[in-house]
Amino acid sequence: MGQEPLIGERGALRRMVERGRLVSMVLWGPPGVGKTTLARLLAEAVEAPMDVLSATSSGVKDVRAIVAQARGWAEQGGGSTVLFIDEIHRFNKSQQDALLPHVEEGVVTLIGATTENPYFEVNAALLSRLRVFRLEPLSDEDLGRIVERALSDERGFDGRVVLDDEAREHLIGISAGDARSALNILESAASMAGADDTEAKTPIEPSLEDIETAAQQRVLSYDRAGDGHYSTVSAFIKVVRGNDPDAALYWLATMVAAGEDPKFIARRLIISASEDVGNADPRALQVAMVAAQAVDWVGLPECQYALAQATVYIATAPKSNRSGEAYWAAMEDVRQHGSQPVPKHLQNAPHRRMKSHGIGVGYQNAHDHEGGDVEQQGLPDALVGRTYYEPTDRGWEARIRERMDELTKSRASKQ
To answer: Cis (ω within 30 of 0) for the bond into 301?
Structure first.
Protein backbone atom coordinates (compact mmCIF):
# COMPACT_ATOMS: atom_id res chain seq x y z
CA MET A 1 0.00 0.00 0.00
CA GLY A 2 1.22 3.49 -0.83
CA GLN A 3 4.34 2.58 -2.82
CA GLU A 4 3.07 3.13 -6.35
CA PRO A 5 6.39 4.48 -7.70
CA LEU A 6 7.94 1.08 -6.94
CA ILE A 7 5.11 -1.37 -7.58
CA GLY A 8 2.88 0.56 -9.99
CA GLU A 9 2.61 -0.24 -13.68
CA ARG A 10 6.04 1.23 -14.47
CA GLY A 11 7.59 0.59 -11.06
CA ALA A 12 11.07 -0.93 -10.89
CA LEU A 13 10.01 -3.75 -8.58
CA ARG A 14 7.04 -4.67 -10.76
CA ARG A 15 9.31 -4.89 -13.80
CA MET A 16 11.63 -7.26 -11.89
CA VAL A 17 8.72 -9.50 -10.99
CA GLU A 18 7.50 -9.53 -14.56
CA ARG A 19 10.95 -10.70 -15.66
CA GLY A 20 10.84 -13.37 -12.98
CA ARG A 21 14.16 -12.41 -11.42
CA LEU A 22 15.04 -10.26 -8.42
CA VAL A 23 18.27 -8.39 -7.80
CA SER A 24 19.78 -7.93 -4.36
CA MET A 25 18.46 -4.73 -2.82
CA VAL A 26 17.91 -2.54 0.21
CA LEU A 27 14.41 -1.40 1.11
CA TRP A 28 14.88 1.91 2.91
CA GLY A 29 12.00 3.63 4.65
CA PRO A 30 10.42 4.62 7.96
CA PRO A 31 8.88 2.06 10.31
CA GLY A 32 5.57 0.45 9.45
CA VAL A 33 5.44 1.12 5.70
CA GLY A 34 5.59 -2.54 4.61
CA LYS A 35 9.25 -3.35 3.99
CA THR A 36 8.99 -6.90 5.36
CA THR A 37 5.65 -7.49 3.66
CA LEU A 38 7.02 -6.24 0.36
CA ALA A 39 10.02 -8.58 0.62
CA ARG A 40 7.71 -11.58 1.20
CA LEU A 41 5.52 -10.59 -1.74
CA LEU A 42 8.55 -10.28 -4.02
CA ALA A 43 9.85 -13.72 -3.03
CA GLU A 44 6.40 -15.26 -3.57
CA ALA A 45 6.00 -13.54 -6.93
CA VAL A 46 9.16 -15.13 -8.34
CA GLU A 47 8.52 -18.42 -6.49
CA ALA A 48 11.77 -18.22 -4.52
CA PRO A 49 12.26 -19.70 -1.03
CA MET A 50 12.81 -17.05 1.61
CA ASP A 51 14.76 -17.05 4.85
CA VAL A 52 14.44 -14.26 7.38
CA LEU A 53 17.03 -12.91 9.81
CA SER A 54 16.98 -9.95 12.16
CA ALA A 55 20.29 -8.14 12.45
CA THR A 56 19.54 -7.44 16.10
CA SER A 57 19.66 -11.13 17.07
CA SER A 58 21.56 -12.91 14.26
CA GLY A 59 25.19 -13.16 13.28
CA VAL A 60 27.62 -14.63 10.77
CA LYS A 61 26.91 -18.17 11.96
CA ASP A 62 23.23 -17.79 11.05
CA VAL A 63 24.14 -16.35 7.65
CA ARG A 64 26.46 -19.29 6.90
CA ALA A 65 23.79 -21.82 7.84
CA ILE A 66 21.27 -20.23 5.47
CA VAL A 67 23.87 -19.93 2.68
CA ALA A 68 24.72 -23.65 3.01
CA GLN A 69 21.05 -24.53 2.69
CA ALA A 70 20.62 -22.09 -0.23
CA ARG A 71 23.61 -23.59 -2.02
CA GLY A 72 22.09 -27.05 -1.76
CA TRP A 73 18.83 -25.73 -3.16
CA ALA A 74 20.63 -24.03 -6.06
CA GLU A 75 22.60 -27.19 -6.89
CA GLN A 76 19.29 -29.04 -7.23
CA GLY A 77 18.22 -26.48 -9.83
CA GLY A 78 16.05 -24.50 -7.47
CA GLY A 79 17.58 -21.11 -8.23
CA SER A 80 18.50 -18.37 -5.78
CA THR A 81 17.11 -18.14 -2.24
CA VAL A 82 15.87 -14.79 -0.95
CA LEU A 83 17.66 -13.85 2.27
CA PHE A 84 15.76 -11.09 4.04
CA ILE A 85 17.69 -9.26 6.78
CA ASP A 86 15.65 -6.85 8.87
CA GLU A 87 17.46 -3.80 10.27
CA ILE A 88 20.52 -4.64 8.20
CA HIS A 89 22.17 -1.42 9.38
CA ARG A 90 22.70 -3.11 12.76
CA PHE A 91 25.13 -5.61 11.24
CA ASN A 92 28.69 -4.48 11.90
CA LYS A 93 31.35 -4.25 9.18
CA SER A 94 32.59 -7.84 9.50
CA GLN A 95 29.03 -9.18 9.47
CA GLN A 96 28.22 -7.17 6.35
CA ASP A 97 31.49 -8.29 4.73
CA ALA A 98 30.46 -11.91 5.33
CA LEU A 99 27.54 -11.39 2.96
CA LEU A 100 29.68 -10.14 0.07
CA PRO A 101 30.83 -13.40 -1.61
CA HIS A 102 27.39 -15.00 -1.42
CA VAL A 103 25.64 -11.97 -2.90
CA GLU A 104 28.35 -11.72 -5.58
CA GLU A 105 28.00 -15.40 -6.44
CA GLY A 106 24.22 -15.19 -6.52
CA VAL A 107 23.65 -18.07 -4.10
CA VAL A 108 21.31 -15.75 -2.22
CA THR A 109 19.35 -12.73 -3.32
CA LEU A 110 19.77 -10.33 -0.43
CA ILE A 111 16.93 -8.04 0.56
CA GLY A 112 17.91 -5.79 3.44
CA ALA A 113 15.46 -3.55 5.25
CA THR A 114 16.52 -0.44 7.10
CA THR A 115 15.06 2.70 8.62
CA GLU A 116 18.49 4.38 8.45
CA ASN A 117 20.23 5.96 5.49
CA PRO A 118 21.97 3.00 3.81
CA TYR A 119 24.53 5.30 2.20
CA PHE A 120 25.87 5.90 5.71
CA GLU A 121 25.05 2.62 7.44
CA VAL A 122 25.84 -0.07 4.84
CA ASN A 123 29.43 -0.80 3.82
CA ALA A 124 30.36 0.69 0.46
CA ALA A 125 31.52 -2.71 -0.86
CA LEU A 126 28.19 -4.35 -0.05
CA LEU A 127 26.14 -1.32 -1.09
CA SER A 128 27.76 -1.36 -4.53
CA ARG A 129 26.19 -4.79 -5.08
CA LEU A 130 22.71 -3.70 -4.00
CA ARG A 131 20.03 -1.48 -5.45
CA VAL A 132 18.50 0.96 -3.00
CA PHE A 133 14.73 1.48 -3.11
CA ARG A 134 13.21 4.23 -0.98
CA LEU A 135 9.78 3.57 0.55
CA GLU A 136 7.71 6.59 1.52
CA PRO A 137 5.60 7.12 4.67
CA LEU A 138 2.01 6.03 4.20
CA SER A 139 -0.53 8.76 3.59
CA ASP A 140 -3.63 9.17 5.73
CA GLU A 141 -5.64 7.70 2.84
CA ASP A 142 -3.39 4.64 2.73
CA LEU A 143 -3.66 4.16 6.50
CA GLY A 144 -7.43 4.54 6.28
CA ARG A 145 -7.66 1.74 3.72
CA ILE A 146 -5.45 -0.50 5.85
CA VAL A 147 -7.60 0.16 8.95
CA GLU A 148 -10.80 -0.54 7.01
CA ARG A 149 -9.30 -3.79 5.72
CA ALA A 150 -8.37 -4.81 9.27
CA LEU A 151 -11.91 -4.10 10.45
CA SER A 152 -13.69 -5.94 7.65
CA ASP A 153 -11.34 -8.67 6.43
CA GLU A 154 -11.93 -12.21 7.66
CA ARG A 155 -8.26 -12.39 8.64
CA GLY A 156 -8.84 -9.31 10.79
CA PHE A 157 -11.86 -8.44 12.89
CA ASP A 158 -14.28 -9.67 10.19
CA GLY A 159 -16.83 -6.94 10.93
CA ARG A 160 -16.92 -7.57 14.68
CA VAL A 161 -15.35 -4.16 15.39
CA VAL A 162 -16.39 -0.77 14.00
CA LEU A 163 -15.01 2.75 14.43
CA ASP A 164 -16.90 6.01 14.26
CA ASP A 165 -15.43 8.79 12.12
CA GLU A 166 -13.88 10.67 15.05
CA ALA A 167 -12.10 7.62 16.48
CA ARG A 168 -10.94 6.53 13.01
CA GLU A 169 -9.57 9.98 12.18
CA HIS A 170 -7.72 10.16 15.50
CA LEU A 171 -6.24 6.67 15.03
CA ILE A 172 -4.92 7.60 11.60
CA GLY A 173 -3.58 10.94 12.83
CA ILE A 174 -1.60 9.57 15.77
CA SER A 175 -0.09 6.76 13.67
CA ALA A 176 1.97 9.23 11.60
CA GLY A 177 2.22 7.06 8.48
CA ASP A 178 3.10 3.87 10.43
CA ALA A 179 0.70 1.03 9.60
CA ARG A 180 2.14 -1.26 12.27
CA SER A 181 1.43 1.35 14.94
CA ALA A 182 -2.08 1.90 13.60
CA LEU A 183 -2.90 -1.81 13.71
CA ASN A 184 -1.35 -2.30 17.15
CA ILE A 185 -3.29 0.64 18.58
CA LEU A 186 -6.50 -0.60 16.93
CA GLU A 187 -6.01 -4.09 18.34
CA SER A 188 -5.37 -2.78 21.86
CA ALA A 189 -8.32 -0.39 21.74
CA ALA A 190 -10.61 -3.13 20.43
CA SER A 191 -9.47 -5.45 23.20
CA MET A 192 -10.21 -2.81 25.85
CA ALA A 193 -13.64 -2.27 24.33
CA GLY A 194 -14.47 -6.00 24.62
CA ALA A 195 -13.59 -7.39 21.19
CA ASP A 196 -12.12 -10.49 22.83
CA ASP A 197 -15.64 -11.57 23.68
CA THR A 198 -16.37 -13.89 20.76
CA GLU A 199 -19.95 -14.36 21.99
CA ALA A 200 -20.86 -10.70 21.53
CA LYS A 201 -23.92 -10.39 19.27
CA THR A 202 -23.34 -6.78 18.18
CA PRO A 203 -20.19 -5.13 16.79
CA ILE A 204 -17.78 -3.67 19.34
CA GLU A 205 -17.17 0.06 18.91
CA PRO A 206 -13.93 1.34 20.51
CA SER A 207 -14.34 4.95 21.55
CA LEU A 208 -12.04 7.89 20.99
CA GLU A 209 -10.95 7.51 24.61
CA ASP A 210 -10.09 3.84 23.97
CA ILE A 211 -7.89 4.87 21.05
CA GLU A 212 -6.14 7.53 23.14
CA THR A 213 -5.59 5.12 26.03
CA ALA A 214 -4.24 2.41 23.75
CA ALA A 215 -1.84 4.83 22.08
CA GLN A 216 -0.71 6.40 25.36
CA GLN A 217 0.72 9.27 23.34
CA ARG A 218 1.05 10.42 19.77
CA VAL A 219 3.37 8.20 17.79
CA LEU A 220 6.31 10.38 16.76
CA SER A 221 8.21 9.42 13.63
CA TYR A 222 11.46 10.70 15.09
CA ASP A 223 14.62 8.92 16.18
CA ARG A 224 17.20 11.01 17.98
CA ALA A 225 19.99 8.96 16.42
CA GLY A 226 18.55 8.27 12.98
CA ASP A 227 17.16 9.76 9.79
CA GLY A 228 14.10 11.20 11.54
CA HIS A 229 16.44 13.25 13.68
CA TYR A 230 18.34 14.73 10.75
CA SER A 231 15.25 15.27 8.61
CA THR A 232 13.40 17.11 11.38
CA VAL A 233 16.38 19.27 12.30
CA SER A 234 16.84 20.06 8.59
CA ALA A 235 13.19 21.10 8.31
CA PHE A 236 13.51 23.24 11.46
CA ILE A 237 16.54 25.16 10.20
CA LYS A 238 15.13 25.60 6.70
CA VAL A 239 11.81 27.09 7.84
CA VAL A 240 13.61 29.37 10.32
CA ARG A 241 15.75 30.54 7.39
CA GLY A 242 12.60 30.87 5.30
CA ASN A 243 10.90 33.32 7.72
CA ASP A 244 8.13 30.88 8.72
CA PRO A 245 7.69 31.09 12.53
CA ASP A 246 4.63 28.81 12.58
CA ALA A 247 6.40 25.94 10.83
CA ALA A 248 9.49 26.59 12.96
CA LEU A 249 7.46 26.24 16.17
CA TYR A 250 5.88 23.03 14.90
CA TRP A 251 9.24 21.37 14.20
CA LEU A 252 10.60 22.70 17.49
CA ALA A 253 7.67 21.09 19.31
CA THR A 254 8.20 17.86 17.38
CA MET A 255 11.82 17.66 18.50
CA VAL A 256 11.06 18.46 22.14
CA ALA A 257 8.13 16.02 22.30
CA ALA A 258 10.33 13.26 20.88
CA GLY A 259 12.91 13.77 23.61
CA GLU A 260 15.53 15.77 21.73
CA ASP A 261 18.21 17.30 23.92
CA PRO A 262 17.25 21.01 24.28
CA LYS A 263 20.96 21.90 24.27
CA PHE A 264 21.21 20.50 20.75
CA ILE A 265 18.29 22.69 19.66
CA ALA A 266 19.88 25.73 21.30
CA ARG A 267 23.13 25.09 19.44
CA ARG A 268 21.26 24.91 16.13
CA LEU A 269 19.58 28.25 16.91
CA ILE A 270 22.97 29.84 17.63
CA ILE A 271 24.27 28.61 14.29
CA SER A 272 21.18 29.85 12.47
CA ALA A 273 21.36 33.27 14.13
CA SER A 274 24.89 33.74 12.86
CA GLU A 275 24.68 31.91 9.54
CA ASP A 276 21.23 33.00 8.33
CA VAL A 277 20.55 36.30 10.10
CA GLY A 278 24.07 37.60 10.55
CA ASN A 279 24.50 41.35 10.54
CA ALA A 280 21.01 41.96 9.21
CA ASP A 281 20.09 41.77 12.92
CA PRO A 282 23.08 41.23 15.24
CA ARG A 283 20.70 40.89 18.18
CA ALA A 284 19.57 37.49 16.88
CA LEU A 285 22.87 35.96 17.98
CA GLN A 286 22.47 37.58 21.40
CA VAL A 287 18.95 36.15 21.74
CA ALA A 288 20.16 32.69 20.73
CA MET A 289 23.06 32.79 23.19
CA VAL A 290 20.81 33.88 26.05
CA ALA A 291 18.33 31.12 25.15
CA ALA A 292 21.18 28.61 25.36
CA GLN A 293 22.04 29.98 28.82
CA ALA A 294 18.39 29.61 29.83
CA VAL A 295 18.44 25.98 28.73
CA ASP A 296 21.49 25.43 30.96
CA TRP A 297 20.13 27.29 33.98
CA VAL A 298 16.44 26.35 33.81
CA GLY A 299 16.20 23.04 31.95
CA LEU A 300 13.01 21.33 30.85
CA PRO A 301 10.13 21.98 30.87
CA GLU A 302 10.46 25.74 31.48
CA CYS A 303 13.29 26.27 28.98
CA GLN A 304 10.77 25.58 26.22
CA TYR A 305 9.69 29.21 26.56
CA ALA A 306 13.21 30.43 25.84
CA LEU A 307 13.59 28.07 22.88
CA ALA A 308 10.25 29.22 21.48
CA GLN A 309 11.14 32.89 21.97
CA ALA A 310 14.49 32.49 20.23
CA THR A 311 12.93 30.45 17.42
CA VAL A 312 10.31 33.09 16.69
CA TYR A 313 12.83 35.94 16.88
CA ILE A 314 15.29 34.31 14.50
CA ALA A 315 12.56 33.12 12.12
CA THR A 316 11.12 36.64 11.82
CA ALA A 317 14.44 38.54 11.70
CA PRO A 318 15.77 39.97 8.42
CA LYS A 319 18.19 37.52 6.84
CA SER A 320 21.72 37.85 5.51
CA ASN A 321 24.38 35.21 4.97
CA ARG A 322 26.90 37.68 3.56
CA SER A 323 29.27 37.48 6.54
CA GLY A 324 29.54 33.72 6.17
CA GLU A 325 29.90 33.91 2.41
CA ALA A 326 32.64 36.53 2.81
CA TYR A 327 34.49 34.33 5.28
CA TRP A 328 34.40 31.26 3.04
CA ALA A 329 35.53 33.34 0.07
CA ALA A 330 38.51 34.47 2.15
CA MET A 331 39.13 30.87 3.20
CA GLU A 332 39.19 29.81 -0.44
CA ASP A 333 41.91 32.38 -1.13
CA VAL A 334 43.88 31.02 1.82
CA ARG A 335 43.55 27.50 0.40
CA GLN A 336 44.58 28.56 -3.08
CA HIS A 337 47.33 31.03 -2.24
CA GLY A 338 48.50 29.81 1.13
CA SER A 339 49.38 32.08 4.03
CA GLN A 340 50.60 35.27 2.40
CA PRO A 341 53.18 37.56 4.04
CA VAL A 342 51.75 40.28 6.27
CA PRO A 343 52.45 43.74 4.77
CA LYS A 344 55.39 45.29 6.62
CA HIS A 345 53.47 48.31 7.86
CA LEU A 346 50.97 46.01 9.62
CA GLN A 347 53.58 43.84 11.30
CA ASN A 348 54.39 44.22 14.96
CA ALA A 349 57.75 45.85 15.78
CA PRO A 350 58.41 45.25 19.48
CA HIS A 351 62.09 46.18 19.09
CA ARG A 352 63.07 49.61 17.74
CA ARG A 353 65.80 48.15 15.52
CA MET A 354 63.14 46.24 13.56
CA LYS A 355 62.06 49.58 12.12
CA SER A 356 65.34 49.70 10.19
CA HIS A 357 64.08 46.73 8.22
CA GLY A 358 60.84 48.53 7.40
CA ILE A 359 58.80 46.47 9.90
CA GLY A 360 55.99 48.54 11.36
CA VAL A 361 57.00 51.55 9.29
CA GLY A 362 54.19 53.47 7.60
CA TYR A 363 51.31 52.18 9.70
CA GLN A 364 48.58 54.82 10.13
CA ASN A 365 46.33 54.67 13.18
CA ALA A 366 42.74 55.39 12.13
CA HIS A 367 42.11 57.32 15.36
CA ASP A 368 44.66 59.93 14.32
CA HIS A 369 42.71 60.88 11.21
CA GLU A 370 39.55 62.81 10.51
CA GLY A 371 36.43 60.69 10.91
CA GLY A 372 38.46 57.91 12.52
CA ASP A 373 39.31 56.45 9.13
CA VAL A 374 42.31 56.20 6.85
CA GLU A 375 42.86 54.27 3.65
CA GLN A 376 45.82 51.91 3.73
CA GLN A 377 46.65 48.43 2.42
CA GLY A 378 45.21 45.73 4.62
CA LEU A 379 45.46 42.63 2.43
CA PRO A 380 48.65 40.84 1.37
CA ASP A 381 50.26 42.15 -1.81
CA ALA A 382 49.00 39.20 -3.88
CA LEU A 383 45.38 39.87 -2.92
CA VAL A 384 45.14 43.64 -3.07
CA GLY A 385 41.75 44.67 -4.45
CA ARG A 386 39.87 41.59 -3.27
CA THR A 387 36.35 42.27 -1.90
CA TYR A 388 34.82 39.57 0.26
CA TYR A 389 32.02 41.25 2.20
CA GLU A 390 29.10 42.75 0.30
CA PRO A 391 26.36 43.72 2.78
CA THR A 392 22.72 43.44 1.78
CA ASP A 393 20.15 46.22 2.08
CA ARG A 394 18.20 44.28 4.72
CA GLY A 395 17.82 45.21 8.38
CA TRP A 396 20.87 46.46 10.25
CA GLU A 397 23.09 45.44 7.37
CA ALA A 398 21.61 48.28 5.33
CA ARG A 399 23.28 50.65 7.82
CA ILE A 400 26.56 48.79 7.40
CA ARG A 401 26.29 49.21 3.62
CA GLU A 402 25.55 52.91 4.08
CA ARG A 403 28.59 53.29 6.37
CA MET A 404 30.87 51.50 3.89
CA ASP A 405 29.59 53.67 1.04
CA GLU A 406 30.30 56.79 3.10
CA LEU A 407 33.85 55.61 3.80
CA THR A 408 34.43 54.91 0.10
CA LYS A 409 33.27 58.41 -0.88
CA SER A 410 35.27 60.04 1.90
CA ARG A 411 38.47 58.25 0.89
CA ALA A 412 37.92 59.14 -2.76
CA SER A 413 37.54 62.81 -1.89
CA LYS A 414 40.88 62.84 -0.06
CA GLN A 415 42.84 61.53 -3.03
So the answer is: yes
